Amino acid sequence: MNRIRKGDQVLVIAGKNKGQKGDVVRVAGDHIVVSNINLVKRHTKPNPQANQPGGVVEREAPIHISNVMLFNPALNKGDRVGFKVLEDGRKIRVFRSSGEAIDA
After folding, report:
1. At 51, which CATH number?
2. Does residue 54 form part of some domain?
3. pLDDT of the chain along its 104 residues, tens only?
4. 84/66 Cα distance (integer angstroms)
5. Does any domain span residue 35?
6. Which among 97, 92, 94, 33 has a CA at the least distance from the CA of 68?
7. How many other CB atoms are found less than 10 A from the CB of residue 4?
8. How far apart are CA 51 and CA 28, in angstroms?
9. DSSP conformation class of 53
10. Distance between CA atoms of 65 and 55, rounded to whole angstroms?
11. Residue numbers of the domain that contains 53
12. Residue at 98 is within a domain
């Protein structure tokens, strides 16, 4: 079970975008893509078959998962994630500081 999932709101804790918040768009192994964070310019060739124009396109690049923290709206800051097994056998994510469940 991953500590950070698609749709989570995260806080960047290292790098050029330190302190910014965004939503996770995609998780791929130990890298994630966060919306409007770590934007890079990509020079693309035109592809007439896919009806794509060429030029400089700005898009999000992956960030290592160790450089982000899950955002805790109750504390209004980043928080570590732990796991807890419920009585019915389900495993859920919890915030380490408060023990509050992230996904119920």
Report:
1. 2.30.30.30
2. yes
3. 689 999 999 999 999 999 999 999 999 999 999 999 999 999 999 999 999 999 999 999 999 999 999 999 999 999 999 999 999 999 999 999 999 999 75
4. 21
5. yes
6. 33
7. 17
8. 27
9. -
10. 30
11. 9-78
12. no
